[in-house]
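User: Can you predict the 3D structure for this chain?
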Amino acid sequence: MSMEGLLGLLRVHIQRGVNLAIRDLRSSDPYVIMRMGKQKLKTKVVKKNINPVWDEDLTLSIFDPLPVKLEVYDRDLFSLDDKMGDAEFDFTPFLEAVRMRLKDDVPNNTIITTVKPTRTNCLAEESHITWTDGRVVQNMVLRLRNVECGEIEIKLSWIDVPGRKVNK
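Assistant: Here is the predicted structure, written as structure tokens:
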């Protein structure tokens, strides 16, 4: 993958799933696949848990702010893995906050932007983009689509690539 046009790295902390769908007898063995463009990353499988804690960082190389898709699956040994819903998020507002190039004199946990849930996004509640510990972060609770229940909690942060800055 050429670094030409690379804006930086988007770190997506896949924290946990809440009230995920049951796909086996009494539980599920969920994992998350994250896709953006041609990039595809995967969390570990959490066995027999519909409220799994993955606590994993997945990192995407950002050339264009394309939508990011999360798909949750139930791991099955002897058949195809079952789908447990999906969600999509747009990190354009987050990228705009990164481009502000805030300095360390901004008070910790200052809210830069609030993204509200709408019919077209998967947010389950308001999502705040904040200045936390000297960096821009965004916590999101995403409601899974195409499934009877379930949410995924994630946190976005940005990693600058040496020699490159995200400009307006």
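The beta strands are 8-18, 30-36, 39-42, 53-62, 68-74, 82-89, 110-115, 127-132, 135-143, 151-159. The two ends are 24 Å apart (CA to CA).
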